[in-house]
Design goal:
The chain is built from one helix and twelve strands; from the N terminus they run E-E-E-E-E-E-E-E-E-E-E-E-H. The protein is mainly β and 136 residues long. The structure holds dTDP-4-keto-6-deoxyglucose.
Length: 136
């Protein structure tokens, strides 16, 4: 509970050529990026996520469009609307997350601290809750 989810303002550089937005390890995020992926074409009303991570930290950016991220640390739930490519949502370890309300055409970008490892996921909410509460 010492590593809360939070909105991170990203430095932006706008000039007559457009806007450039930066994420740099050691500045906007406190982890080295081991993997990146993006998600698009989410049908209306579909949810994604429904899992937690043991170690993984991530920064989530709605590069285009908008969606909501519901985060749950085993004690409290919080809801973040991502609708601005100049801001990211930092999500630390031991957080259950759901992504909902994807507007048509949305593209989300995930920058994450670990390689893909299914063993690192919690897919079962009760198992997550047990460990999250035991760890606090
Ligand atoms: C997360 C949320 C926000 C891979 O093979 N490599 C990868 O790096 C990823 C992320 C996924 N996959 C495969 C595994 C599944 O067969 O892609 C398929 C869809 O993955 P998943 O069901 O986990 O997708 P989401 O959107 O529910 O979750 C993803 C990430 O898995 C997760 O780390 O935090 O986005």
């Amino acid at each position: 509970r010492t590593d809360p989810c939070r909105i991170v303002e990203l430095p932006e550089y706008t000039d007559p050529r457009g806007t450039l937005t930066v994420v740099e390890c050691g500045s906007e995020i406190d982890f080295d990026i081991k993997r990146a992926y993006h998600i698009r074409d989410v049908p209306d009303g579909r949810r994604r996520g429904a899992h937690g991570h043991r170690r993984l930290r991530q920064l989530i950016i709605a590069v285009h469009g908008s969606f909501e991220v519901i985060v749950d640390d085993g004690f409290e739930r919080d809801r973040f609307l991502l609708d601005d490519p100049g801001r990211g949502l930092y999500v630390g370890p031991m957080i259950w997350r759901d992504m909902v309300g994807f507007a048509p055409g949305t593209v989300g970008l995930w920058l994450v601290s670990e390689p893909y490892d299914e063993a690192e996921y919690y897919r079962d909410y009760d198992a997550f809750l047990h460990d999250a509460r035991a760890a606090s």
